[in-house]
Amino acid sequence: MSQSARWYVVQTQPHAEARADAHLRRQGFTTYMPRLLKQRRHARKTDTVSRPLFPRYLFVLIDHTHQGWHAIRSTFGVADLVGGENGPAPVRTEIIAALRAQEGEDGYFRDTARKFASGAAVRVVDGIFASAVGFFESMNDSDRVSVLLDLLGRRVRVVLAAESIAAA
After folding, report:
1. How far from 61 is each of 6, 97, 104, CA to CA, in Å?
2. Helical H runs in the chain?
3. pLDDT at 3
4. In this predicted structure, what is the pLDDT of residue 114?
5. Closest CA to 78 of 59, 92, 61
6. What is the pTM of this model?
7. Is residue 112 scored above 60 in pLDDT?
8. Which domains are seen in the chain, by residue range?
9. The dihedral of CA 140, 133, 166, 122: what is its sign?
10. Where are the beta strands (DSSP E) in the chain?
11. Residue 35 phi/psi, 5° resolution?
12. Number of Cβ atoms within 10 Å of the Cβ of 29
């Protein structure tokens, strides 16, 4: 990486991260799109799928001595470069290095939010149900969890932020 090369954030069109990545690489840019392996349930079947860690965003390395950033905005799949009035805002190289350090050997992040199995005993740590004990049911893509709590003599499904529960 030359001294004039800096990382920038590209906002992609919806569900077009891979398309933008491929077209930017074809133009000679170095890109970095952190990917996450997630468990997905569909039609009573569970499988592992690859998803962007940051949906609608990826990183591009631009060497200002040889490349301009204006061509990126007209690339298929790209919506814009993240920045302000003075053009795109660079990302510190430490951020990219920190992200790459957290990847597994296969280059993927793991869905670490799924730390509870269905039916595991959990305790609510904050909010109106603080200190209540229940059972973990599921987690959605918005980092919200469904927990079954015993309230007023019956089990009630409560949806909470993922950080609001801990192991019981």
Report:
1. 6, 13, 22
2. 17-26, 93-102
3. 77
4. 56
5. 59
6. 0.66
7. no
8. 5-110 (3.30.70.940), 121-167 (2.30.30.30)
9. negative
10. 5-12, 30-32, 35-42, 45-52, 57-63, 78-81, 83-84, 87-88, 90-91, 108-110, 121-124, 133-139, 144-151, 154-161, 165-167
11. -120, 150
12. 20
Q: How far is CA 102 from CA 40, 109, 156, in A?
A: 22, 7, 37
Token output for 5: 């090369």
Mean local confidence (pLDDT), 120-133:
88
- Dump pLDDT digits (tens) for 94-108: 999 999 988 888 888
Place of tokens 């090369």: 5
| DSSP three-state, residue 102 | helix
